[in-house]
Amino acid sequence: MIFIKGSRGRVPLRVKGRALVIILLALSIISCGYTIASRASLSIDSIKIGKIINKTSEPSLQDMLNIALVDEFQRRGVKVTDSSDNIIDADIISYKLDLLSEKKELGLEYQTNIKVDFRVRCNGEDREYRGVTSPSIDYFAGQSALNSTAAHKQLSDKQAMDGIAFFIVTQLALNSPK
Q: Full-prediction pTM beyond 0.85?
């Protein structure tokens, strides 16, 4: 093993090499334009969740999106109130539940895909975000009892809405005038 003598004794070259690789990796990520969106990233301190219209035949999606948006804004330190001048509206435009695999005519895996259009008024500026989908594809298994499959489907829908809410709030943080 090769050692480097320093002021604190001998340190294996292998340890310094790992530290150098980690530092170089961190610097390369930062230089690619990635940033960390913190609570202070949003230029607003309050928002109103306006109309959320469910244009699909799947019930309760608008409620799931409303809850997901409230949770995500509050997580970022933004107060959700009916008296704010900053408003977000949404149309849930498509919902797809695709069968991915089956065995003996029984669905084993499904994929949930939800698409939403957003209209946002922030600091007097109007923006639109069209066709926002969950950033990840949510899968669930459906080989057990029907009520268990329905519960997994509902959880998958919630996770998709949480992903959409995270994406839209992050977009607002990254595109906010400072």
A: no
By residue range, what is the domain housing residue 154?
43-174
Look-up of token digits 């990635």: 34
137 with 83, same domain?
yes
How does pLDDT run across 146-166, given as a tens digit for each residue?
Answer: 566 677 778 888 989 999 999
Are 99 and 131 within one domain?
A: yes
* Number of domains making up the chain: 2
Burial per residue of 19-30, b for 16 or more beta-carbon CB atoms within 10 angstroms, e otherwise? eeeeeeeeeeee
| Residue 67 structure tokens | 């809850």
User: In the chain, which stretches have pLDDT less than 70?
Assistant: 1-17, 19-21, 24-41, 101-108, 135-149, 176-178
Q: Is 172 helix (H, G, I), strand (E, B) or coil?
A: helix
Q: What are residue 105's phi and psi, to 5 degrees?
A: 60, 25
Distance CA 178, CA 169 (A): 16
Give pLDDT, residue 56.
97
The CA–CA distances, whole Å, from 48 to 44, 68, 81, 165, 170 equal: 11, 14, 5, 14, 17
